[in-house]
Amino acid sequence: MNDILVHWGLSLAIFLPIAGAALLLLIPKENELFIKQVALATTIVTAGVGAWLLVNFDYDRTGKLQFSVNKEWIEIINSRYHVGIDGLSLPLVVLSMFICVLCVIYSWDHFPEPHNPKAFLALILLLETGMNGTFIAQDLILFFVFFELVLLPMYFMIGVWGGANRQYASIKFFLFTLFGSALMILGFLALYFRAGRTFDIPTLVATAGDLLPHNTEVWIFAALFMGFAIKVPMFPFHTWLPDAHTEAPTVGSVILAAILLKLGTYGFVRIALPILPDAAHTWAPWIGLLAVIGIIYGALGCLAQKDLKRLIAFSSVAHMGFVMLGISTLTSFGINAAVFGMIAHGLITGMLFFAAGSIGERYGTREINRLGGLLIQAPKLGWILGFLCMASLGLPGLAGFWGEFPAILSAFNPAAGLSVDTFRVYMVIAAIGTVLAAGYLLWMFQRVAFGAPKDEFVDAHIHDVHGPEWIAWTPMLVLILVLGVLPSLIFKMTDGAVTDIARTLASIGH
Amino acid sequence: MLDHAWLIPLVPVCSFFLILFFGKRFPSKGASIGVFALVACFLMSLVLAGQWIGRDKTVETLHQATAAQIAQSQAASIEESNAHGEATVDEHATAAEEEHGAAGEEREETVLKREPVLHETTWFEVGGTKIKAGVLIDGLSVALLVVVSTISLLVHIFSTEYLRDDRRKTHYFAALSLFTSGMFILVTSSNTLQMIFGWELMGLCSFMLIGHWWEDKDNSNAALKAFFTTRTGDIGLLVGISMLFGLAGTFDIGTTNNLALGAQLDQGLLAAAAAALLLAVIGKSAQFPLHTWLPDAMAGPTPVSALIHAATMVVAGVFLVARLYGVFWQGFHIGAGDGYTPVAMVGGITIIIAAVLAFVQRDIKKVLAYSTVSQLGYMVMALGVGAWTAAVFHLFTHAFFKACLFLGAGSVAHSGSHHSFDMKEDMGGLKKHMPITYWTFVIASLALAGIFPLAGFWSKDEILVGANGNGYNLFLYVGLVGAVMTAAYMTRCIYLTFHGEPRGNAAHHHPHESPLPITGPLVFLAFLSVVAGLLQAPMLHIELFADWFEPAYVSNVVTHHGFNGVLALSGLAAAVGGIAVAGGYYFRNLGPRGVVARGGLPRAGYNFLVNKYYLDTLYTDGVVGSIKGPIARATYWFNQHILDGILNGTAALAIILGRFTYDVVDQKVVDGAVNGIGVSADAGGGALRTVQTGKVQQYAAVLFGALIVFAVALWRFAK
Questions:
Q1: Nearest chain A Cα to B130, which residue?
Q2: Structural domain spans, chain B
Q3: Is the predicted pLDDT of residue B678 greater than 60, yes or no?
Q4: C-alpha–C-alpha distance, residues A322 and B539, integer Å
Q5: What is the pLDDT of residues A192-217, one digit of tens each?
Q6: Taking CB atoms and an 8 Å cut-off, how many pairs form between chains A and B?
Q7: Which of A401, A442, A486 to substitute to test the interface with B, most B CBs within 10 Å?
Q8: Quick check: B627 and A303 CB within 8 A?
């Protein structure tokens, strides 16, 4: 069994979900329960592979690719089926598998209109293949295929099961990100032609820096930047996000926030920085600038929101700003913080979207001013929301803290060659962002949860948290707390891999 | 116990989870779990203190005779470090010691101190840096553990009666436990990162407890205000601790202090770090100008005010300065004695600003709140003038008498004024109905006023002596003026509450004495308010507090001054004077009446004070209002109209441009791509609801066209 998984584990992680999706298509639509069971079983078995990876991963060599498979694929362009995970991929792959299981459970008996569980679940599984594949791929073309694969299912999820304005939101999402990835593939092609005719990521990391002149690096980085920055999304390329989140069904928002946004930040850390370290130094101050603008801008945007989900969407812009600030320092502290921030944001914001979705479903509205007194009508849901607000504003002891504080910390001493003064200014701005975060989250919480229910809902019967919700949410809530107290659970995976990247970057430092 | 001090923070954490998950099943709704946990913490703290005091003294500290010498040797070490660049800590310490030997030969004494007990484990590792978590037991942490566990235990007992039938009793006791563990974590932290944990955990509990009765908007507003304001200060905490880590390369407190005191850290950045941390102190310890949240925080249940907003959390800022004293000492040149330091300025201004406001309050808890702000000012000022021991000693004594006063106010509201805190409307004449509450309140007030030989006298005297002896005379006078005012507003408060004719609820609701769970803690605290000062009474040649609780890193730099009869008498005279003036005004009906009612300047001044110097208006309407309102709306407008406008405009332009490009660019590439997308879209679309595939195709075509243009550009450039 172990032997099989060592060689096939990663491929299973990628292709089990899509196989499950294919199976779903064969089951007649009427057989709803069976469809759900198959979908759930697929995600659980995939997560089982993830658990096996977690257990068998060699934590002493987190910087090395493990469970790799490197086979011939598209010979003519020398693109290979190269998969493997290191300490950077592992937590993200596992998070993706984990979230997909919970999403299927959460969907169990509330599929949004127009219902159709078969198609909905098949899309979730298709998404999972794309997400897992992106984190596992070690070949640029393979990476690109998976990176793009997630676009379509999410496009349909928003466009079909979305809210009133779903057409605009889904097309905007699709085209905006497609535009970014198109630039990205150009960057990949430029790398291929200018840096040794290979798409192999580890090879490019080792050789591209020496082969490329500085100017070319800077331009290729620009192309990659557009692809990844739109996905993150960084200010000012974020405007697709609030629309997509607001219109997407709950599960769509959760997957979008928890995993899809990380594809962008992961791309920076996996591809852009280590392959083009020289250009990374040139771009870092600008990335840092956009990051801190995003922190403040996202927070101010939140304060202006009237819709619960839209508020959380804007808060993602701010949080991903912290992640990008950490990355832009090009230090191991900063990048570790960034990876932690990705996981933490995935759990916390994903959970916030779950909670917001459930609130919206119960009240029939997500308009903050119409809500109130949630703690009276559904105390457990209310306290969960409060817990999440605290986690989201970066309270120490909960996961969010480890994405924020180390990022601020790392900006005091950025990598050699970067302007210390610039980054120290960023440090202070980012710290100010933490106050604004407390502002929009607690103000929202006060209006939604404290006080008495508004007149229109005084007599409404509001269900407190029910079975499938507890099953889907408990693991996330527990993880938010556990990771907050024991950050080493993540850092021990990421540190080795990140330190290697930081070393590549430091060797370039001017 | 010295080696197992980690149990002390752990016990209330466990009790928090127990109460949260199982509390409702207990007849006491979880209160008994909390009380039991605190009894355990209290006993452990006492044992710990006993063992600490009995510990052998092994660490030699250099006790400098004059501040000037220190400044001199520090200047020498700065030159030293400049010359040697990257001298290691050990080398440098030796160098500094030699320096001391040469400069201070004639007046130097060696004192023995107890060695701190440090237990650490690796918390996590990042980029080759091991970050530790650990427990540091030294004089400072022992002193605070004793204070915190004592007050917290008494408050728990008090609360069992005060919140007997509260609708959210379980939540209340859970939060109280969590809070206590937060404070324990803070005071036992061996590193600054862990301190942030304790610090913010307390902020969270403070938020939950101030807003305990959140049905009322005023209460939740107060909770939010407290959280935001302290969080604003926390910008300084995050930045300051980041800077210290960047400078010292570690979160470890001991190392940081030693490096700072050894002048091993860049002076400019160290000063900036100290200034950032001072901002955190201003927020958390409610110093001017961020003190405005504390009076509002009185919206929480009264025992919470006693514990969190008088005795423990609000002293966290004072503790931070005391803990990282090396950073502040060196960053602000406290030892130089040149008249003022930023820390002393903040404290000094706060003493007066807050004491003035205590005179115009109608709400007994707000009088006490402003008094707390003012007394915290004394502690901060003391640290700023180099009187470390005086500051911590005042923290120690203040905790007892101020907790006694708050609990006394709670007792009055519970049994005397029918849940009202309005002294003018609902109190008066309660002395005869509530003798125990009355006398404990009076004793604690006298202790606060600084009447000999009660606790406050000794600690305030230490502060005055320190300010005088270390070359900060201005702050000696500030302290004396503050003492007059303190004595006067407390006299007013006692008169309005307990004397005169009963008014409102006090007249109509059958006031009576409170039951034992309330009076017990009052009596015990009153007793401590009497005797706690005797730990440090230089007049009687007792300096136990300094001996037990002053750590070596402090002893190495601060100077102790002996008893000063003139200052002691001045302090006492100030207190007696304050009581006499206010007593004459209220009890004897002397002095002018109705000055304010006559209008003119007095009326204007009164309004200025009642409106709290308009600071709240400035913050709430000015700062918060504009960020929440116009600034946020403008940002969002920019987002929707400018950014999205550009996007939508580009899309429209692209369609026009696309038709042109479509005809010009190589048909095969585009067609191939479009067909590809079309096929997949149709395949999916067939099964799903109809979507506007046509539009997508069109967009996609345009995009691919644009991309090819970009590709050509990139290619040309790359070549």
A1: A488
A2: 342-591
A3: no
A4: 56
A5: 988 888 899 999 998 888 888 888 89
A6: 183
A7: A442
A8: yes
Residues in chain A: 510
Residue type, B444: A
Task: Select from A64, A58, A60 the least CA-distant residue to A86.
Answer: A64
Q: Is A397 close to B695, i.e. CB distance below 8 A? A: no
DSSP B689: -
d(CA A185, CA A79): 13
CA-CA-CA-CA dihedral for B262, B267, B270, B275, to nearest 10: 130
**Residue ranges of B 363-382 with Cβ closer than 8 A to chain A:** none
Spatial distance between the Cα atoms of A505 and B10, rounded to a whole number of angstroms: 42
d(CA B320, CA B280): 9
Question: How confident is the model at residue B713, as a pLDDT?
Answer: 61
d(CA B498, CA B436): 12
Query: How much is the average pLDDT of B132-144?
Result: 92
DSSP A139: B
Q: Chain-wide mean pLDDT for chain B?
A: 83
d(CA B45, CA B326): 26
What's the domain count of chain A? Answer: 1
Could you tell me the residue range of the domain that residue A339 belongs to?
2-506
Give residue-wise pLDDT tens across range B80-101.
Answer: 444 444 444 444 444 444 444 4
- The confidence score (pLDDT) of residue B707 equals 61
Chosen for mutation from B126, B214, B220 (greatest number of chain A CBs closer than 10 Å) is B126
**Structure-token pair, residue B388:** 């470390």
Residue B361, CA distances (Å) to A32, A46, B422, B493, B588 in order = 68, 65, 9, 9, 21
Using one digit for the tens of pLDDT, what is the confidence trace for B596-649? 777 788 888 888 888 888 888 888 887 888 888 888 888 888 888 888 888 888
Confidence of residue B670 (pLDDT cuts 50, 70, 90): low
- Of chain B, the end-to-end C-alpha distance in Å amounts to 73
Under 8 Å between Cβ of B557 and B70: yes
A203: exposed, middle or buried (Cβ count in 10 Å: 0-12, 13-18, 19+): middle
The answer to whether the CB atoms of B718 and A171 lie below 8 A apart is: no
pLDDT (0 to 100) of residue B148: 94
Q: Which two tokens stand for residue B118?
A: 């440090």
- The encoded tokens of residue B704 equal 């691919």
Paired tokens of A185: 């593939």
B216 Ramachandran zone, left/alpha/beta (phi>0; psi -120 to 50):
beta
Instruction: Quote ipTM for the complex.
Output: 0.91
- Indicate the pTM of the whole model: 0.88
Strands B129-137 and B117-126: antiparallel
DSSP secondary structure letter of residue A414: P
